[in-house]
Structure to design on (82 residues):
């Protein structure tokens, strides 16, 4: 099984956005992401200078309905330069 990438929260938020999640609101230091067909929301803490804990990320990936491999592909997918 592949390992989840260690990175700051803003990079993980970008990966979830590629999966169709949208930032609904910010409550303190937590970004709340929603998806129209999902009944759940994702709450991602954004702490400057700290990576998102891998255990928390694993739970977020599971709650988003993704496999680890699908998430890794979204994480490393780059937007095309214009």
């Amino acid at each position: 099984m592949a390992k989840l990438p260690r990175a700051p929260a803003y990079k993980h938020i970008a990966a979830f956005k590629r999966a169709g999640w949208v930032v609904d609101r910010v409550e303190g230091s937590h970004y709340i992401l929603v998806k129209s067909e999902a009944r759940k929301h994702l709450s991602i803490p954004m702490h400057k200078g700290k990576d998102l804990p891998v255990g928390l990320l694993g739970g977020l990936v599971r709650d988003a309905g993704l496999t680890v491999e699908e998430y890794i592909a979204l994480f490393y997918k780059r937007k095309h330069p214009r």
Summary: The mean pLDDT is 92. Helices lie at 9-18, 54-63, 68-76.
